[in-house]
Design goal:
Layout: H1 13-35, H2 40-48, H3 54-61, E1 68-71, E2 91-98, E3 101-108, H4 119-135, E4 139-145, H5 153-156, H6 163-175, E5 180-189, H7 194-197, E6 201-205, E7 209-211, H8 215-222, H9 228-232, H10 234-241, E8 246-248, H11 251-262, H12 302-309, E9 316-318, E10 326-333, E11 336-343, E12 348-351, E13 362-365, E14 369-370, H13 372-388, E15 392-398, E16 400-401, H14 405-409, H15 412-425, E17 430-439, H16 440-445, E18 455-458, E19 463-465, H17 469-486, H18 493-511, H19 513-518, E20 524-525, H20 531-542
Helix pairs in contact: 4-6, 13-15, 17-18
Length: 558
């Protein structure tokens, strides 16, 4: 739990606009770098083999004119630099429309280390599969991978969230009747060979290879000399082994086959809340970056943000005069009923109950901080949303829980635990959008990654850490300073400045949303003005799961 830093100066609208423009330009440039995969030479090598790149395959697979909502674009960002990096984790994942229906697509990028699995690759595929499992989204795998990246095999192979989990989820989704189609369009080697074979349907292009061990390894292991086609080519698997269901001459033919098969699958039932979808009304179209400043210093009324993305600006606010640092209420987005839990960022003058200090009738509460009454309100509202069976949308811009004598005596830990309990045990779909700070225990209370959101998005302005940069730098510097003094070294002003700058620089790097996205703490970084559209399509995806567990909260603090 963190202290509140209120020292940041307010921004002018001109400066705020410039900061947003710079951030969005930088985001677009960085996305372009990632989309280049292994670079132009690697793309040319793929084309020389008469094969498409991962993103080219996805573009031809999905319905023309429909968006592909890429997820985890920045996986592996600035990681594995000593081996040349791993753009986008070497695999492209996202939700696209195929034959009029949303499908999760997982496509190996063979331009990045021949599509080999790095540690982050396995975690990204597992996250994509988990999203599909939770939302009953059908999957299409476009396989073109050399298998595990052997120099890092110890970080990829054995653990619960490592490579083996991919096949576990493969099997679990099959058992639940979630459609899975695989197309082998290049290499499919070693343990990775199990993934496509465990799908409902397997397609393979001529010139591709499917085997547990390639020709070189077979020769080394048992001394047998055999070429790739005889060992695991499309002809062999189609005519002799019987592993392949459909053999196709090239990528285009394989993708047409995938589309045709996808069009035949039965449509499942939808979630009860999705059956209450109303006619879609337009939102205000207001520029959200004009409401929320890029830096955390600008105060804003989160109700303006909510009504700018809801249908017709509708918002039924729950307990508007109580616990005002969290705003809760029901609305509709894209016709779907939703329940918002949002951090308020205005400065609030709170009325105090009688019996306090003589003459004191109000106190100032800082926006972005969770106080006891706001924790109580949010916990109660989350239970209401579950009772109504309405999905929860968290708009997170949180500094943390309030600290200090008064807050402790008011039971902030007990009341905060109640909110965390409600978030943890909620059974309706939960979607989180981080618009600003996501600090400390506030991250937990506002449905951070550890609390199982169906989707978690971040704006370029998001900051993700235990505490704010200034507070962390001061705290860490004090610790290091004490250590230096114990060692008999009394630092001068120049030493202090250098030490502070080093700590602050490292912490600021870790605050950047790309750092979080690289490690899959968020599913995607999105521009503010794409929030409504992405939210609607996320709800479309969530609507595919008709099952809702019974709400049970265990020991609930009062």
């Amino acid at each position: 739990m963190t202290e509140t830093d209120t020292s940041a100066p307010a921004q002018s609208s001109t400066h705020a606009g410039s900061a947003w423009a710079d951030a969005l330009t930088c985001l677009q440039a960085d996305q372009s770098k990632v989309h280049a995969g292994g670079g132009t030479k690697a793309q040319a090598r793929q084309h020389d083999k008469n094969r498409l790149t991962a993103r080219e395959r996805i573009a031809r697979l999905t319905d023309e004119g429909t968006p592909f909502d890429e997820l985890m674009t920045f996986a592996g960002w600035e990681m594995y630099a000593d081996v040349g990096g791993c753009p986008s984790g070497g695999v492209v994942t996202g939700i696209g429309t195929v034959a009029g229906r949303p499908w999760m697509v997982i496509a190996n990028d063979a331009t990045v280390k021949a599509g080999a699995f790095f540690p982050i690759t396995a975690k990204k595929v597992i996250r994509a599969q988990t999203i599909a499992l939770e939302n009953h989204l059908p999957l299409i795998y476009l396989v073109d991978s050399a298998g595990v990246y052997l120099p890092m095999q110890d970080e990829i192979f054995p653990d619960q969230d490592d490579f083996g989990r991919v096949f576990y989820l493969n099997a679990r989704m099959s058992a639940r009747g979630i459609p899975q189609i695989a197309a082998i369009m290049g290499n499919c080697v070693a343990g990775g060979a199990y993934l496509p074979v465990m799908c409902d349907t397997l397609i393979m292009t001529e010139g591709s290879g499917l085997y547990l061990a390639g020709p070189a390894l077979v020769k080394a292991a048992i001394g047998q000399v055999v070429d790739s086609e005889e060992l695991g080519g499309a002809d062999m698997h189609a005519a002799i082994a019987g592993t392949v269901d459909y053999k196709e001459p090239d990528d285009d033919a394989a993708l047409r086959r995938v589309r045709a098969l996808a069009d035949l699958y039965a449509q499942g039932d939808v979630a009860p809340w999705a059956r209450r979808r109303a006619e879609v009304r337009e939102a205000s179209g207001r520029d959200l970056s004009e409401i929320v400043g890029f830096e955390s210093g600008k105060t804003y009324d989160v109700r303006d943000l909510i009504t700018s993305i809801t249908d017709g600006g509708e918002f039924h606010e729950f307990k508007p005069e109580y616990g005002e640092t969290i705003v809760c209420g029901f609305s509709r987005v894209g016709g779907y009923p939703v329940a918002f839990v949002a951090n308020q960022r205005t400065v609030i003058k709170k009325k105090l109950k009688s019996g306090g200090e003589p003459g004191l009738r109000t106190r100032i509460e800082v926006g972005g901080v969770i106080y006891g009454d706001s924790a109580d309100k949010a916990a109660r509202f989350i239970l209401d949303a579950n009772q109504a069976g309405v999905p929860l949308v968290f708009l997170s811009d949180v500094t943390g829980f309030m600290v200090g004598r008064d807050s402790e005596q008011e039971g902030i830990i007990r009341r905060g635990a109640k909110l965390v309990n409600a978030v943890s045990n909620s059974v309706v779909p939960k979607i989180t959008i981080i618009t600003g700070g996501s600090f400390g225990a506030g991250n937990y209370a506002m449905n951070g990654k550890a609390f199982g959101p169906r989707f978690i998005f971040a704006w370029p302005s998001a900051k993700y850490a235990v505490m704010s940069g200034n507070a962390a730098a001061k705290t860490l510097m004090d610790i290091q300073l004490a250590a230096l003094k114990r060692a008999g070294h009394e630092p001068d002003d120049e030493d202090l400045k250098r030490l502070y700058d080093e700590v602050k620089s490292k912490y600021d790097t870790e605050l950047d949303p790309r750092y979080a996205a690289a490690r899959l703490w968020v599913d995607e970084i999105i521009p503010p003005n794409e929030t409504r559209d992405r939210l609607i399509r996320a709800l479309d995806a969530c609507a595919g799961n008709p099952h809702q567990d019974e709400l049970r909260v265990g020991v609930f603090q009062v």
